[in-house]
Amino acid sequence: MELALISDVHGNLLALERVLEDIGDVDLILSAGDIVGYNPYPSEVIKLFREHNVRSVIGNHDRAVVTGDVSWFNPFAAEAVEWTQNQLNKKEIEYLSGLEDRLTIDVGDVRVTVTHGSPRSVEEYVCPTTIDIKLRGMISEVESKYLVLGHTHLPMRKEFKEGVVLNPGSVGQPRDQDERAAYCKFNPTTGECKLHRIEYDIDRVAEKIRKEGLAEKLARRLYQGR
Length: 226
Ligand SMILES: [Mn+2]
Hints:
Layout: E1 3-6, H1 13-23, E2 28-31, H2 42-51, E3 55-56, H3 60-67, H4 75-87, H5 90-97, E4 102-107, E5 110-115, H6 132-142, E6 146-148, E7 156-159, E8 164-167, E9 181-187, E10 192-198, H7 202-211, H8 216-224
Helix pairs in contact: 3-4, 3-5, 7-8
The structure holds manganese (II) ion.
The site of manganese (II) ion has 7 residues, from loops.
């Protein structure tokens, strides 16, 4: 079974379209959350998620759009959450509020668990610098060979005897100094996981960010990959 892993699309339609093209035919696309927020195409991105039957967990931005609680957010992120709330219709909000915290997929006898931040919290950052003992504890806790996370916007792969922690990076707002959209092709049976980087039309997204009156910083960071 061939999977594609995506995360943190954050309303970036142009990046998502190019990534879906590059993914081509796979059995299933899994998303580690943050479908909306930051970028100015939330409805269009939700539509594509539905069309491609993407299975996604909820991210902290998705949740903030549903609840209106932006107390954890910096001012730019909070403003984008509020803007996104005003763009979405009732059905789209319902789609976001229906997303689970955790997804578990069994491929033969191999279990894959997906959460946004960590298995404990949608807000917790699990970074390449997070200590091994903590990562191993998380894998044991979810009783899965593979734990797929998002939230940091940093691609990551760490292998232990307990299992493997994967983060496919971010489609819509990469933060590893590479401005190209990130995603992974992943075969849970063989364990093969390949990170792909895809160029997209950042100018068009930046223009739309400015046109909608969202923070200039949100446009700038797309070019910087941070
Ligand atoms: Mn995010």
